[in-house]
Amino acid sequence: MDKTSSFSSHEGKPIRCKAAICKKAGEPLVIEEIHVHPPQAYEVRIKIVCTTLCHTDLAFSKYDSGPLARFPRILGHEAVGLVESIGEHVDGFKHGDVVLPVFHPHCEECRDCKSSKGNWCTRFAEDLVSNTRRYGMASRFKDSMGEDIHHFFFVSSFSEYTIVDIAHLVKISPEIPVDRAVLLSCGVSTGIGAAWRTADIEEGSTVAVFGLGAVGLAVGEGARLRGAAQIIGIDINPDKFAIGKKFGFTDFVNPTLCGDKKISEVIKEIAGGGVDYSFECVGITSVLSEAFLSTRTGTGKTVALGINPAAPTELDSFGLFRGKHVCGSLFGGLKPKLDIPILVDRYLKKELNLDSFITHELKFEDINKAFDLLEKGKSLRCILWMDKK
Ligand code: NAD
Ligand code: ZN
């Protein structure tokens, strides 16, 4: 934990620090000094130690209209941090704790949080756009001119300090290295959780994963941990196949080499009639339709993970009548405060392969290079170190 040792406390006062601001859709982020408010009730201010970027940050940096397009904005939602100060009514967190901010809330008190069936939080999960759930639209960030800066998914980790509501914060063991813990803040937990909690894959199952970014590869890792017999990876970028082998994938399909055949037909041939489980981890609706067609008639289950908020989806209605299932999954169906510590524990027991997700490391100032690497399909996760010079 030597990389986390130095931080200062400005308890109760605003902090001036550096943040990467997305000022306009599609433009590079700009690093500027900002003001971060002290935490209010039920909030914690954290010093980000390192952050990574997920495809969702890339997608939101480009939306130029509609309710999801908000600028200026501090993106970033995969991170690990240290508690710098706490607001009123904050139990269970103290200065110096190692914490993961998570975009998906877990209030632990509402009907859905108390149910074992899913990971919805009725109290807080509906609203993704207002600035803080408990205090309406008051922003926690201001630029040097005193103008508000929008948050992103209640995390905004592309900043040296950020404010997080305790419904979005998980305390973790300080034993896990921070550059492994950061992966569990979104994409990797989502993929593993989808295999484990949403699909509940049984031993000996056949699985197809569309899109081998960090989310899809993590689905493979989750399927491997559940004892799947066959895990087929589908990606238009063949560079992903070698890394897929490290996560237990047994077969690979490149859609660009399938000629006139539909990908679902190729998968049905490989898996003897269709897979038990398929996962869409790209965010393209036609890929979701193919994922659905690839599953076994009668019992097949498709899990939609890729995010494409604008597009309607077409599914084979005969397949639905014949007993196939499809469902979406946010944060892999994981209840953050309950399930992330379990994943940390499995990493510490050397059961979980987190190491192979890290393809690059950069200092925070080079964040636009990390966007470029992800966009070009060259990286899985690039660790951005806040303090590295
Ligand atoms: P990524 O960009 O690293 O990976 C996407 C992969 O899909 C790439 O390897 C790319 O080559 C491949 N691909 C692109 N077009 C394809 C096609 N037509 N067929 C097959 N493969 C194709 O992204 P990521 O960070 O792994 O995220 C994947 C998706 O998951 C994104 O849509 C992201 O927004 C979403 N996501 C969802 C959740 C959730 O809670 N549901 C959480 C995190 C991310
Ligand atoms: Zn809840």
Automatic annotation (TrEMBL):
Keywords: Metal-binding, NAD, Oxidoreductase, Zinc
UniProt xrefs under Pfam families: ADH_N, ADH_zinc_N
UniProt keyword 4Fe-4S present: no
Enzyme Commission number: 1.1.1.1
GO cellular component terms, semicolon-separated: cytosol
Keyword Zinc: yes
Residue stretches spanning the membrane: none
PROSITE patterns: ADH_ZINC (PS00059)
Domain Alcohol dehydrogenase-like C-terminal, residue spans: 214-337
Recorded catalytic activity of this chain's protein: a secondary alcohol + NAD(+) = a ketone + NADH + H(+); a primary alcohol + NAD(+) = an aldehyde + NADH + H(+)
Biological process annotations from GO: formaldehyde catabolic process
Molecular functions per Gene Ontology: alcohol dehydrogenase (NAD+) activity; S-(hydroxymethyl)glutathione dehydrogenase [NAD(P)+] activity; zinc ion binding
Cofactor: Zn(2+)
Domain Alcohol dehydrogenase-like N-terminal: 42-173
Family: Belongs to the zinc-containing alcohol dehydrogenase family. Class-III subfamily.
Subunit relationships: Homodimer.
Protein name, per record: alcohol dehydrogenase
Species of origin: Brassica carinata
